[in-house]
């Protein structure tokens, strides 16, 4: 029992990331009718927003500490972050320690900007082109974005730790009456899950309760009719794209303590998120979220040692197997609607 | 000739001559001149031209004719390579069984993967093929290590059985004794031309592949494939079942990929999982659209161009750039080098991505369409000249 | 006994009775029109006839064989060709290729791996296609790409693609819907011409009464999913029930 709960918990954070990316993918599908192969790259850029922000916070200048000496006996040179100059040593260090959560503030404007530029500069011209062209051009863009990041940050993963306060784990099992250390759940993963839940709820609330969201939902259901109403749907769609980019970016930024970002991570997550979207049902927002969590949890079950010893390598391919099975038995996915993205 | 009409025969002959004479044609610069770095006429590179040409020709039969965009064809190439290396390990270094098995294995897998993926069309199909390819990659990389040798990659070891290996059999891939890496040099004044055995084997295979694809394009079967792309609804209401046609196209293109994989291994008897990665699948898509999807010669041109650019761009470094721009004032020279630096050497993939985008945005029909546009432009200009030169009114 | 026999077909969508006890018989070598106001169940009936929808009960027999649950290509191979509301043609292919494809389908069936033969050597097929194009006065356009033609020519081409298969039943789905008056008249003329030139059985589903009066041998009027009357055009014209159905709609 405790093992099962543990696996469900372990699947939640990965599932959260899948759900957030798939949510954005679905929004873009549904509203703009565009298949965005560069969405994983947005997740990756978000992660590198966190890296950049944490580096910005650590910008330092060198001072000579007369009281200490290095191993040669010379006065020790130490780097002091400007933040410590401005806010005092302790507050400064705390801010640096909290770089990842604080990077949200940095990631939101950056990602919105990236999204707007992408939509206005490129995607807009592909609304009327075949899906194959959309796939190809965004695929090319994904390569370009990945390579730009690689050129500037190198090819190796960059560890980006969570604040020290969250570095420990929660002994979740004790709450439920299990033995100590039976169910250990790192604080940051819990935070990530809660964070995702808030964002998902926010996106749904935004679509449900604002006029803007209403128009977007109407546009998803029937684009032409909404266009006929004389509503400037294009502008809203630009904003929608920016929003989807921001969601993916935040998902990436907060994910950095769980997975050290590298330039390739976008591609890995993209393929899986596409599978998630397909399983959830193309064009269905709740389907995307549901499938994201389901597949995350499934993947975590598949990586249990008991399962792996029975079916070696199942953790690597379980998601694909499920996707293939779903597509063959329920071609529209778990919650897909008729006529979405069908020729 | 060969069941082709005059125009196609001419095309085939031109391609055959170009391919056969490639070691000379692609070596226009004398060996010790500064321009020699732009030569492409050495076996190693030319092999890649023709092998990826085969890959792209096959991909074009699926994507160019039926419009089904597969994002997983590198998986078949990878399987072909693994099959070929296994033949080397078990039988001998003779390339014939290796190439045969690579095609058979790719065919078998493409029947299964194609059958499932083709239950859906459009982007679903692309995602399904992508999922299959990623799955194959993941399996090859980790789980199937006994078969694929995982991260290290599969290669031939001295303690492998090689049961058909005779006393005097060469210890490298060969075709009944003709070693693949064997070459003959021809020195002609300042020029050196190298003729590789491996290149000529691969080139003959490519010509055969090209000929088969030509026949398919001109056949009723090919017409049906183009009808699938054009209007599947009408096709079904015309009494044709599109599925067997698309599956046949999928399997044929899978076999082409397998052949390419087998030939890659025949040139260099080792392989790894990275050949199956989806970036590799993306590359063949790029080759095809760069040349011109649905055209006969486009994929070959696209494959050659991409592999040539890859070779050049990867070779160039800052030092070479400095040489090129040495005629400029220092500041400008440094500026140019700094600007170009991200695109060369390790930056090749960045350039590749940009080419990809540029082609899709500006020239979706690829080079062949671009050539036709230019051709039309000249033609129009000519007729304009002709009509302005003549004062006689048209009849 | 007609070539197409629809017996007791019912279809419900949730609470809506889309088709209620539809009986219909199309006799060979006649033009049978099925008309009715919007929402009368015409397109549901059509979808049943082409195998897209399976009715809750009843049977649809074509020449003694059931068409229910069959794939469109099987239905075509049985001898039913279909003309769509907006012409469905192979837009990127040349006109002659458009007509050769149905010829191949007729000769080779739903699938044949004829990958080594050359289209250029298929003299019979080409002659057949050219004769058909000549018949509809399009021979001079044979090498044009289909997409660049006028809408009228596309309709003509689609008709040629269906007729070249010598179907035993030609199914027309609102062939003049959304057309300007002139185009509508052209289409009517084309259909009349076809009817005069050859023995053919046609079933036309149509919204506009005027279109079918000059064409049809028999007319079935559908209202609220049920056949109201079936008779010759002359008798239908003055039929009180028909007036009611159409006037009722006009009064809305």
TrEMBL record, chain A:
Please tell me whether the keyword Membrane is annotated for this protein. Answer: yes
Membrane topology per the entry is: Multi-pass membrane protein
Q: Which UniProt keywords apply?
A: Amino-acid transport, Cell membrane, Membrane, Transmembrane, Transmembrane helix, Transport
Q: Which molecular function terms from Gene Ontology are attached?
A: transmembrane transporter activity
Any GO BP annotation: amino acid transport
Assign the protein's first listed, main location to one coarse class: membrane
Q: Which residues cross the membrane?
A: 16-35, 42-61, 95-114, 190-216, 236-257, 269-298, 310-328
What highest taxon heads this organism's lineage? Bacteria
Q: Is the Transmembrane keyword given for this protein?
A: yes
Pfam families for this protein = BPD_transp_2 (PF02653)
Which cellular component, as a GO term, is one annotated location? plasma membrane
Protein localization: Cell membrane
Family membership? Belongs to the binding-protein-dependent transport system permease family. LivHM subfamily.
Specify the protein name: High-affinity branched-chain amino acid transport system permease protein LivH
Per the record, the gene is: livH_7
Automatic annotation (TrEMBL), chain B:
- Tell me what this protein is called: Leucine/isoleucine/valine transporter permease subunit
Q: What is its main location?
A: membrane
Kindly name one Pfam family recorded for this protein: BPD_transp_2
Enumerate the UniProt keywords alphabetically: Cell membrane, Membrane, Transmembrane, Transmembrane helix
Q: Domain of life here?
A: Bacteria
Topological type in the membrane: Multi-pass membrane protein
Q: List membrane-spanning regions.
A: 12-29, 49-71, 91-116, 123-144, 198-217, 244-264, 284-309, 350-371
TrEMBL record, chain C:
PROSITE patterns named among the record's database cross-references: ABC_TRANSPORTER_2
Enumerate the Pfam families for this protein. ABC_tran, BCA_ABC_TP_C
State one molecular function term (GO): ATP hydrolysis activity
Q: Does the keyword Kinase apply?
A: no
Q: Which InterPro entries match?
A: AAA+_ATPase (IPR003593), ABC_AA/LPS_Transport (IPR051120), ABC_transporter-like_ATP-bd (IPR003439), BCA_ABC_TP_C (IPR032823), P-loop_NTPase (IPR027417)
- Coiled-coil region: none
This enzyme's EC code(s): 3.6.3.-
**SMART domains, per the entry:** AAA
In terms of SUPFAM superfamilies, this protein maps to:
P-loop containing nucleoside triphosphate hydrolases
* Top-rank taxon, per record: Bacteria
GO cellular component term, pick one: plasma membrane
Asked whether the UniProt record includes Cell membrane among its keywords, one would answer: no
PANTHER family recorded: CONSERVED COMPONENT OF ABC TRANSPORTER FOR NATURAL AMINO ACIDS-RELATED
Q: What is this protein called?
A: Methionine import ATP-binding protein MetN
Originating species = Flavimaricola marinus
Which lineage? Bacteria, Pseudomonadati, Pseudomonadota, Alphaproteobacteria, Rhodobacterales
Q: What's the name of its gene?
A: metN
């Amino acid at each position: 029992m405790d093992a099962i709960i543990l696996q469900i918990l372990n699947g939640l954070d990965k599932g959260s990331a899948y759900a957030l990316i798939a949510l954005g993918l679905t929004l873009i599908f549904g509203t703009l009718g565009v298949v965005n192969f560069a969405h994983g790259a947005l997740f990756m850029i978000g992660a590198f927003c966190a890296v950049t922000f944490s580096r910005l916070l650590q910008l330092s200048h060198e001072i000579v500490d007369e009281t200490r000496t290095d191993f040669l006996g010379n006065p020790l040179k130490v780097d002091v972050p400007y933040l410590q100059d401005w806010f005092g040593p302790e507050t400064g260090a705390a801010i640096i320690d909290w770089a990842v959560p604080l990077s949200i503030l940095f990631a939101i404007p950056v990602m919105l900007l990236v999204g707007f530029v992408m939509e206005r500069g490129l995607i807009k011209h592909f609304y009327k082109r075949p899906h194959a062209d959309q796939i190809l051009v965004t695929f090319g863009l994904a390569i370009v974005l990945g390579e730009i990041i690689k050129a500037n940050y190198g090819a190796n993963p960059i560890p980006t730790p969570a604040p020290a306060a969250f570095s420990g784990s929660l002994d979740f099992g004790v709450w439920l009456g299990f033995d100590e250390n039976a169910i250990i759940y790192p604080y940051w993963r819990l935070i990530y899950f809660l964070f995702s839940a808030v964002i998902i709820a926010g996106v749904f609330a935004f679509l449900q309760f604002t006029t803007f969201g209403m128009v977007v939902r109407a546009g998803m259901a029937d684009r032409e009719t909404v266009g006929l109403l004389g509503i400037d749907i294009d502008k809203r769609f630009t904003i929608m794209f920016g929003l989807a980019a921001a969601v993916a970016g935040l998902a990436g930024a907060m994910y950095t303590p769980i997975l050290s970002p590298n330039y390739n991570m976008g591609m890995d997550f993209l393929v899986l998120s596409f599978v998630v979207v397909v399983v959830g049902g193309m064009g269905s927002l709740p389907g995307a979220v549901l499938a994201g969590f389901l597949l995350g949890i499934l993947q975590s079950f598949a990586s249990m040692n008991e399962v792996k010893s029975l079916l070696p390598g199942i953790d690597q391919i379980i998601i694909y197997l499920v996707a293939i099975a779903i597509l063959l038995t329920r071609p529209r996915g778990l919650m897909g609607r008729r006529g979405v993205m069908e020729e | 000739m060969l069941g082709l009409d005059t125009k196609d025969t001419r095309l085939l002959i031109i391609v055959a001559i170009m391919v056969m004479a490639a070691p000379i044609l692609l070596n226009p610069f004398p060996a010790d001149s500064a321009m020699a770095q732009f030569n492409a006429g050495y076996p190693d590179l030319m092999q890649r031209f023709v092998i990826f040409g085969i890959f792209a020709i096959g991909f074009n039969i699926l994507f160019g004719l039926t419009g089904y965009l597969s994002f997983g064809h590198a998986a078949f190439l990878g399987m072909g390579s693994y099959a070929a290396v296994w033949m080397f390990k078990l039988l001998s270094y003779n390339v014939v069984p290796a190439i045969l098995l690579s095609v058979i294995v790719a065919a078998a897998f493409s029947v299964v993967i194609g059958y499932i993926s083709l239950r859906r069309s459009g982007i679903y199909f692309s995602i399904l093929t992508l999922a299959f390819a990623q799955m194959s990659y993941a399996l090859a990389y980790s789980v199937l290590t006994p078969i694929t040798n995982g991260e290290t990659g599969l290669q031939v070891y001295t303690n492998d059985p090689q049961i058909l290996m005779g006393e005097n059999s060469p210890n490298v891939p060969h075709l009944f004794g003709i070693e693949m890496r064997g070459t003959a040099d021809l020195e002609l004044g300042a020029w050196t031309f190298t003729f590789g055995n491996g290149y000529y084997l691969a080139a003959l295979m490519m010509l055969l592949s090209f000929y088969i694809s030509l026949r398919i394009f001109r056949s009723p079967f090919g017409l049906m494939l183009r009808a699938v792309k054009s209007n599947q609804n009408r096709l079904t209401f015309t009494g044709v079942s599109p599925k067997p046609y698309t599956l046949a196209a999928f399997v044929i293109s899978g076999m082409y990929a397998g052949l390419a994989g087998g030939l890659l291994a025949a040139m260099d008897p080792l392989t790894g999982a990275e050949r199956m990665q989806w970036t590799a699948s993306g590359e063949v898509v790029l080759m095809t659209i760069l040349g011109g999807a649905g055209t006969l010669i486009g994929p070959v041109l696209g494959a050659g161009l991409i592999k040539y650019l890859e070779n050049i761009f990867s070779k160039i470094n800052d030092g070479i750039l400095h040489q090129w721009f040495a005629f400029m004032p220092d500041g400008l020279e440094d500026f140019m080098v700094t600007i170009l630096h991200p695109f060369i050497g390790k930056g090749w993939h960045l350039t590749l991505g940009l080419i990809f985008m540029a082609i899709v945005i500006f020239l979706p029909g690829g080079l062949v369409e671009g050539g036709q546009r230019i051709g039309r432009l000249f033609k129009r200009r000519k007729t304009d000249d002709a009509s302005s030169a003549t004062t006689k009114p048209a009849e | 006994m007609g070539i197409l026999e629809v017996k007791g077909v019912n279809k419900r969508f949730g609470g809506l009775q889309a088709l209620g006890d539809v009986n219909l018989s199309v006799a060979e070598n006649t033009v049978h029109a099925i008309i009715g106001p919007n929402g009368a169940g015409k397109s549901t009936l059509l979808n049943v006839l082409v195998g897209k929808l399976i009715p809750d009960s009843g049977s649809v027999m074509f020449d003694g064989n059931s068409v229910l649950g069959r794939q469109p290509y099987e239905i075509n191979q049985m001898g039913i060709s279909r003309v769509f509301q907006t012409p469905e043609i192979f837009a990127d292919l040349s006109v002659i290729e458009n007509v050769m494809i149905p010829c191949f389908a007729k000769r080779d069936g739903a699938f044949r791996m004829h990958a080594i033969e050359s289209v250029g050597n298929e003299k019979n097929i080409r002659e057949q296609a050219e004769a058909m194009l000549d018949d509809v006065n399009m021979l001079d356009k044979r090498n044009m790409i289909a997409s660049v033609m006028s809408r009228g020519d596309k309709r003509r081409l689609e008709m040629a693609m269906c007729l070249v298969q010598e179907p035993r039943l030609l199914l027309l789905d609102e062939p003049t819907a959304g057309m300007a008056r002139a185009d509508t008249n052209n289409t009517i003329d084309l259909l009349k011409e076809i009817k005069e030139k050859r023995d053919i059985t046609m079933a036309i589903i149509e919204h506009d009464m005027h279109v079918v009066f000059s064409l049809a041998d028999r007319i079935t009027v559908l209202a609220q999913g049920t056949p109201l009357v079936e008779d010759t055009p002359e008798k239908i014209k003055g039929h009180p029930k028909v007036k009611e159905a159409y006037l009722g709609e006009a009064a809305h």
